[in-house]
Write a structure and sequence with these properties.
The structure is a homodimer. Chain A is about 50% helix and about 5% strand. In chain A, strand 1, helix 1 and strand 2 form a beta-alpha-beta unit. Chain A has helices at about 15-25, 50-55, 75-85, 95-110, 115-120, 130-150, 160-175, 185-195, 200, and strands at about 10, 35, 60-65, 70. Chain A has a four-stranded mixed sheet with strand order 2-1-3-4, covered by helices on one side. Chain A is globular and about 45 Å long. By secondary structure, chain A is α+β, with helices and mostly antiparallel strands. Chain A folds into two domains: about 10-85, Glutaredoxin (3-Layer(aba) Sandwich), CATH 3.40.30; about 95-200, Glutathione S-transferase Yfyf (Class Pi), Chain A, domain 2. Chains A and B meet through strand 4, helix 3, helix 4 and helix 6 of A and strand 4, helix 3, helix 4 and helix 6 of B.
Chain lengths: ~220, ~220
């Protein structure tokens, strides 16, 4: 935390995992300071000694809060949910909570890790785009089918949940990697309904303290 | 569930994600039936129409319980924890819960997905072993450092938690991929202490209904 007691979010404007946490903080009305970690500049600021001491995984996001540092976006969101329960990001019913966590884990464990920067760097350059697209398409094929039975207005029923915090940044990744989203009408329409909400707007990669001028909107 | 009301676990003896759930079921004393899904036989039984209807991600584990089907191992364990809280697999203190989830997500999202079968198949055969080893080594480097500040007897303090359910199967994967674990004394000693516990023994890949005879112990 800062001297003023505010949590500190170590974030990169374009990181989909950081965006998940920014939405949670915004929805819960938690005031915080951003420390930008540029994943590309200086050969990657996440590899600096200072940042490695903070998160040995050398990844954003990390959140300093209540005297501890948490990394892994879903672990951060679950902690916020347990310590700042309003508004809730997990439904009350355990079966619906299971759906929310299943969708969140599918995206955070089954799609994003396979198309993130550190993995793509290990793939021959000419295959990188196809590699990322395959990971997203295979995940979205499953997700579209799952959402058809869980979704209401949003991913699970009619309340915004942790699953939605994972969905929107992942769809943005899909667009960046030029994945055709027309085969995914459920994903696309939920994404559209979420993107107009204030918490998703103010936390958007195009509106962060570290967003380069040419990408601002 | 079966007609007798028992939960059904769709599992593969060697799947580390299935093993996590088997340990949770054993610790909580939940009686269940196993339906083996052989990830290699018949060009992969997870690709069958019947199984895809059950889990569109075409992955094990999946658990039929209380009239629903849950996939994603951590979502399953969190559901079991909320509906069958004894013995608990998450500590009471939210900060310790955050540590448990952080370690679990690091393994389940940051290591395992990068070295699982479906990803390795996309890598040229001669690079597969190095690819898997790199994923494990990079994750273990971080994990070793994190455990030095969270561990007691086990990953977080002195109680067995969800983090331990992720650790043991991941160390088994490391051994399968011939990763030298001597640089990880904390990981190794926690793993050793856990492996002697009954719930880790009876759920071990060498003792499952679908373990091939030559691999049984």
């Amino acid at each position: 935390m800062t001297e003023s007691g505010k949590p500190i979010l170590y974030s990169y404007f374009r990181s989909s995992c950081s965006w998940r946490v920014r939405i949670a903080l915004a929805l819960k009305g938690i005031d915080y300071e951003t420390v930008p970690i540029n994943l590309i500049k200086d050969e990657g600021q996440q590899f600096s000694k200072d940042f490695q001491a903070l998160n040995p995984m050398k990844q954003v996001p990390a959140l300093k809060i209540d005297g501890i540092t948490i990394h892994q976006s879903l672990a951060i969101i679950e902690y916020l949910e347990e310590t700042r329960p309003t508004p809730r990001l997990l439904p009350q019913d355990p079966k619906k909570r299971a759906s929310v966590r299943m969708i969140s884990d599918l995206i955070a464990g089954g799609i994003q890790p396979l198309q993130n920067l550190s993995v793509l760097k290990q793939v021959e350059e000419k295959f990188q785009l196809t590699w990322a697209q395959n990971a997203i398409i295979s995940g979205f094929n499953a997700l579209e089918q799952i959402l058809q039975s869980t979704a209401g207005t949003y991913c699970v029923g009619d309340e915004v949940t942790m699953a939605d915090l994972c969905l929107v940044p992942q769809v943005a990744n899909a667009e960046r990697f030029k994945v055709d989203c027309t085969p995914y009408p459920t994903i696309s329409s939920i994404n559209k309904r979420l993107l107009v909400l204030e918490a998703f707007q103010v936390t958007h990669p195009c509106r962060q303290p570290d967003t380069p001028t040419e990408l601002r909107a």
